[in-house]
Amino acid sequence: MELEERIQLLANLGQNLLENTETYESVLHKAKRKNPWFTIENQKRSIQAIANSYLKEENLNKWVELYRKENFSSESKNIGVICAGNIPLVGIHDLIAVFISGHKALLKLSSKDEELMKLIVNILCESDSRCKEFIKILPMLKGHEAVIATGSNNSARYFEYYFRNVPLLLRKNRTSVAIIDGSETDDELKALGDDVFAYFGLGCRNVSKLFIPEQYEVSKVFESFQYLSELKNHHKYANNFDYNLALYLMNQDKHFANDFFIMKEDESLFSRLAVLHFERYKDREVLNLKLNEAAVDIQCIVGNSESCIPFGKAQSPDLWDYADGVDTLRFLTEEI
């Protein structure tokens, strides 16, 4: 299968997903029953974002043009892909990368995100039977010649040992932060709410910590995020909010809260579910140095400066916006 054919198949997949969302409604409901975090709204959100960005023909062509074309027609290898399951279709970028590179994807799916990934694979295989040779879903990896694995810092130690004899692209725990300088418009602050709470805040691109000026009023954040108050109606999210609020009250930890999320001044980049950490800063240059030192734990930085992702865009990566900053396609076309 030629590179141009693979690009066209992926582009057709995107069009199919956009045009036939209602046809796949039963799959979305099945996924929601198996994993209550996967609301119908969030699944559709993920599908539409992937179809409108990852699976656009012009974006796919732009992506592959960043690499040497001859590497896409090299000898096909079996690439094990261990998928995470924290948000809907979080593993699809790896699948696309392996498929477009001309290798064979051996998928070990997360039990939390099986249905949507199986749907994607079925659509591809039904559109061209040759895809069955390039994409296989396995209960356990075997026959792999390289591995792409995403997991926690604890599972990473296991992966490093278990796959020590093959090329390994490994991703660990990361989170995202936002910088507020006080010049933000109401619309920008509202958009920040999406960066924090899209997919309930379960993704590595979700903002878990704000850096704010010394005199900044946190009440502005609560006011801007009020449109997200329906989060409290999701039982699993509400349980986490209630638990964390009770924990802070019992421990007499200083915090700010409304009826659906908590803000806590804390140096940690990682926060509990339904909790947003914040830290005050005096000097932007000092803050930049601090963030550089913590770069290994940061997926993306949201803010108004040119080096930051614009407010509201944290969950809208392009194909070339690689998780953990590790170039997946270069690994697949030049390093294995």
What do you see in this structure?
The relative contact order is 0.13. Helix 1 runs antiparallel to helix 5. A hairpin with a 4-residue loop joins strand 8 (256-257) and strand 9 (262-265). This protein has 336 residues and is an alpha/beta fold. The mean pLDDT is 96. The chain folds into 2 domains: 3-173, Aldehyde Dehydrogenase, Chain A, domain 1, CATH 3.40.605.10; 175-302, Aldehyde Dehydrogenase, Chain A, domain 2 (3-Layer(aba) Sandwich), CATH 3.40.309.10. It contains 13 helices and 11 strands.
Which key phrases capture this entry?
336 residues, alpha/beta, Aldehyde Dehydrogenase, Chain A, domain 1, Aldehyde Dehydrogenase, Chain A, domain 2, 2 domains, 6-stranded mixed sheet, 13 helices, globular
Strand content: 15-25%
Shape, per Cα inertia axes:
globular
At the fourth level of CATH, the homologous superfamily of the largest domain is: Aldehyde Dehydrogenase, Chain A, domain 1
The Rg value, from CA coordinates, equals 21 Å
Q: Give the helix level as a range of percent.
A: 40-55%
SSE string: HHHHEHEHHEEHEEHEHHEEEHEH
Summarize the helices and strands and which ones pair or pack:
Layout: H1 3-19, H2 25-34, H3 40-52, H4 57-64, E1 78-82, H5 92-101, E2 104-108, H6 115-127, H7 131-134, E3 135-137, E4 146-150, H8 153-162, E5 168-171, E6 175-179, H9 186-197, E7 207-213, H10 219-224, H11 235-251, E8 256-257, E9 262-265, E10 275-281, H12 284-293, E11 298-302, H13 328-335
Parallel strand pairs: 1-2, 1-4, 2-3, 4-5, 6-7, 6-11, 7-10, 9-10
Antiparallel strand pairs: 8-9
